[in-house]
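Predict structure. Chain length: 249.
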Amino acid sequence: MKRYLFILFLAISFSVQAQSNAANYKYIIVPEKFSFLKQINQYGLNTLTKAFFEEKGFTVYFDNAEIPEEIATDRCKALVVELQENNSMFVTNLTLLLKDCKGAVVIKSKAGKSREKEYETAYNLALKDAFTSFNDFKYVTGNPTMATNPTPAPANVAAKTVPVPVNQPIVAKTEQQEGLLYAQAISNGYQLIDATPKIVMTLLKTSLEDCYISNNGNTNGIVLKKNGTWFFDYYKNNVLVSEKLSIKF
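Prediction complete.
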């Protein structure tokens, strides 16, 4: 039990780690054209992305614009935006990445989704949905940190401490997720598909049997089998939630 709780806390700390890694950056560079589109600023996605991060307090430039010498001579001082498309037949899916100068992913959004049929509307809604992963982020002027409200603990602390006050008991709350989920194998685990079909959760393998680090697009936690039944365990408002799942492998 202690080992599985550690994996749960570790999974949650991954999100905090990514936020902390972004703390060293003030500048963000947005491409004038995303790779999967044919035109510059098609559907207004590039200007929408630039405006979003500017509202968060960052200094944002298009990659074709004149940029200050500070980052022109050292691109490692800026993060670069990448937008990935993974559409299905009926759903537009967009994932927003912030990468460093070596191409490593510093922050990755959830997959923003839209079922609208009209392209411009669908892409804009999907991108705005992806933006919700960054709702709590902002750049504090004069202080190179990513601040949230409340401010998250540093990553090295989050990995070592329980994410609830130690003087308060952990109260487990059980919920039931409706519908059968189908497990599809991926390189490092599984993705769970509902009857739509739509990807509702990813499962990443751990060193424990029947225990996976998981994310449902909004929440990090673990999926594990207890007494023959699968559960998605995560923390919500400092309460441990155990969500019952029906999975067909």
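Summary: Confidence is low (pLDDT under 50) at residues 142-169.
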